[in-house]
């Protein structure tokens, strides 16, 4: 069996493809694109919540938020490592991100204006991320699928901590409940955008599904998220900002309104509320970390020449 036949057989049998297996160029490229984009999202995603660490309302909430933001850094690192197994270096991925040639999730270009936004991000953004990532634990590329298993466990904790913040606010004063409603109003639609364009407009879905990278479509995942989240909002006593949202008895799903796709594509193309600021912050952090990378490289050189002598 040649490499291509073996690859086809692995996909056909729904087995994992591993870094040393032969794989088509397109498979490698699409995985690098998606995994790098995913890793960048985790790292850029530290900014909106990091924004509230110094202003968390209690010491306990500060410690929880700090742990969550550190988890996101860890997710980024597992994912950069997974992408590196495909033959791209972390340095190259950073350069591509900083040059605007690699994307990251649209959601992280929106501002976190109040403490309730930290709750809404945990509840909705991590909730949407888990919906998407549970599917990716079954992705055909071994290192990506395995990274997803651990990430999903941590995301579940993140989603719970966000929901708990919302619950506390909703059981608090009228002003606190209004703050929670305002956060839901602003984060609802951007959260639905996380799942990407409609299936009919999705460039990569057909091929990624054929390769068992994607196991569910953008629209099916979005529907699953809406069905899961509406009862949670009802329990909080909050109103989802969508006049078209209603239970459809026949479909056994919620019907919901149309996303503002002009807004989605504007954000994806770099013109969202905070795209420039997010990348500027990221570039500055990278430049400021140069001495750490240089020191680590010097240490590694010294260490390897010592072990060569020994
Ligand atoms: N934002 O053909 P399509 C987290 C792009 S972080 C920006 O459907 P695909 C967290 C898409 O890339 C978790 N761009 O693409 C962290 C493509 O453009 P290119 C983030 C988007 O790949 C911190 C074009 O639109 N999760 O949990 O088949 C704090 C056409 O789309 C978006 C992931 O990254 C978007 N929303 O499907 C808190 C999940 N949507 O590349 C929480 C991994 C689409 O041709 N990624 N585009 O230039 C995926 O599962 C898939 O890549 C997507 C899109 C479902 C997002």
Task: Sum this structure up briefly.
The protein is mainly alpha-helical and 310 residues long. It has helices at residues 3-12, 25-44, 46-50, 59-84, 90-98, 115-136, 142-170, 174-193, 205-210, 218-236, 261-271, 275-288, 290-309, and strands at 246-248, 253-255.
Strand-helix topology:
Elements: H1 3-12, H2 25-44, H3 46-50, H4 59-84, H5 90-98, H6 115-136, H7 142-170, H8 174-193, H9 205-210, H10 218-236, E1 246-248, E2 253-255, H11 261-271, H12 275-288, H13 290-309
Antiparallel strand pairs: 1-2
Characteristics:
310 residues; mainly alpha; 68% helix; binds benzoyl coenzyme A
Describe the fold and architecture.
The longest helix is centred in the middle third of the chain and has 29 residues, at about 140-170. With about 300 residues, the protein is mostly helical. Helix 4 (about 60-85) runs antiparallel to helix 7 and helix 6 runs antiparallel to helix 10. The mean pLDDT is about 95. The chain has helices at about 5-10, 25-45, 45-50, 60-85, 90-100, 115-135, 140-170, 175-195, 205-210, 220-235, 260-270, 275-290, 290-310; strands at about 245-250, 255. It is built from 13 helices and two strands, in the order ααααααααααββααα. A two-stranded antiparallel sheet has the order 1-2. Helices cover about 70% and strands about 0% of the residues. The structure holds benzoyl coenzyme A (BYC). Benzoyl coenzyme A binds next to helix 2, helix 6 and helix 9.
């Amino acid at each position: 069996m040649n490499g291509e036949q073996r690859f086809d057989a692995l996909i056909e049998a729904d087995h994992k493809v591993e870094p040393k297996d032969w794989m088509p160029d397109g498979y490698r490229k699409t995985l690098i694109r998606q995994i790098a984009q995913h890793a960048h999202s985790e790292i850029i995603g530290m900014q909106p919540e990091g924004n509230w660490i110094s202003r968390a309302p209690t010491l306990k909430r500060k410690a929880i938020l700090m742990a969550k933001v550190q988890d996101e850094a860890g997710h980024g690192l597992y994912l950069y490592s997974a992408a590196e197994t495909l033959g791209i270096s972390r340095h190259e991925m950073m350069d591509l991100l900083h040059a605007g040639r690699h994307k990251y999730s649209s959601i992280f270009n929106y501002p976190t204006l109040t403490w309730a936004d930290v709750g809404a991000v945990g509840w909705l953004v991590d909730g949407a991320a888990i919906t998407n990532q549970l599917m990716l634990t079954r992705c055909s590329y071994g290192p990506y699928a395995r990274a997803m298993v651990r990430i999903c466990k941590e995301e579940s904790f993140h989603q719970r901590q966000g929901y708990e913040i919302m619950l506390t606010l909703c059981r608090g004063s009228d002003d606190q409940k209004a703050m929670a409603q305002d956060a839901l109003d602003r984060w609802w639609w951007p959260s639905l955008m996380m799942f990407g364009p409609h299936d009919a407009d999705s460039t990569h879905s057909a091929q990624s599904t054929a390769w068992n990278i994607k196991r569910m479509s953008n629209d099916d995942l979005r529907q699953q998220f809406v069905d899961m989240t509406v009862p949670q909002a009802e329990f909080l006593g909050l109103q989802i900002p969508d006049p078209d949202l209603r239970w459809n008895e026949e479909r056994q799903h919620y019907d919901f309104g149309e996303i503002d796709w002009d807004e989605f594509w504007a954000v994806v193309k770099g013109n969202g509320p905070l795209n420039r600021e997010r990348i500027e912050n990221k570039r500055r952090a990278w430049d400021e970390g140069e001495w750490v990378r240089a020191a680590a490289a010097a240490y590694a050189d010294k260490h390897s020449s010592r072990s060569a002598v020994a």
